Structures are given as C-alpha cells and as structure tokens.
Amino acid sequence: MSNSDIIAAHYAASDRGDLAGMLAPLGPETTWTEAAGFPYAGTYTGPEEVRDNVFGAIARDWEGYTFSLDDLLDAGDTVIGLGTYRGKHRETGRSFTARVAHVWKFDGGKVVSFEQIVDSVPVVNAANAAEDR
Fold first, then answer.
1. In this predicted structure, what is the pLDDT of residue 132?
2. Mean pLDDT across the chain, nearest whole number?
3. For residues 34 and 101, is the Cβ–Cβ distance under 8 A?
4. What domains are there in the chain, each with its CATH number?
5. What pTM value is reported for the model?
6. Which residues form a coiled coil (predicted)?
7. Cβ atoms of 62 and 86 closer than 8 Å
C-alpha cells in the first residue's frame, strides 16, 4: 500500500464508523496533534491516547460528527487530506461546519505524525452555550 492508500483507508473507515480501522495506521509512537483553539487541542501519542482524547471525546460531545474528504494530496512522505467537519453539539443543540486540513507524515511507510489545521471558531461557537444563535 502507498502512503496515500493507507490514509484513504483511514478515511474510508471513518465513513463506515469503524474506529478500529481509523486507528489502524497509528503506531505506539505516532503523534496526533489537534489544533490550538480546537476543543480537543493537544498532542497525543499512540492509538489509545487518540481514541480516548479525540474520538471518544467527539463521540461524547457531538451528534452526527463527520469529516467529508474533498481532496487527498499525495506528496510522498506527506499526505494531506482536505475537507469539512460537520456536527451538532449534544448539549447546546447547535450545529457547525468547519474547513479542515489533515497533514499526515510518514517515515518508512509508517505514520509518524498527524496534524490538524482547522477553522475552530465555528466548532467552539457551536459548543458554547453562551453564544447567540
């Protein structure tokens, strides 16, 4: 499998709601960085930390949270996924749409890092009960 095939399989697993398939490309040393300003901001290492601190938190806080992939760009040891997040916050009932880029780095055919670049304002606003509709 090429690097872009590995990431395409991750996104296909996401579309199916297959968390194990989404985490499959991550090794114990893979770093996963959620953008500053995003509700789950931080860097997590390995599939368990990503599962607990990112996907588990998203499942707890959001209804219908999805990532729609628009483009998958193959730059060899870097693969970039461009797309859109959507979801509805369980507590506030507010929905959002936000553009996002995922930057995947590889070394020797293995994912070494993931970095999220996202317009976090719509996400934070949807989660904030004090915001006006």
1. 47
2. 95
3. no
4. 3-127 (3.10.450.50)
5. 0.93
6. none
7. no
Q: How far apart are CA 78 and CA 73, in angstroms?
A: 8
* Distances, alpha carbon 28 to alpha carbons 4, 47, 50, 110, 111, in Å: 20, 7, 11, 11, 10
DSSP label at 24?
Answer: T
| 3-state SS, one letter per residue, for 50-66 | HHHHHHHHHHHHEEEEE
Structure tokens at 4: 């872009």
CB atoms near residue 43 (< 10 Å): 13
Distance separating alpha carbons of residues 24 and 7, to the nearest angstrom:
10
Q: SS3 for 122? A: helix
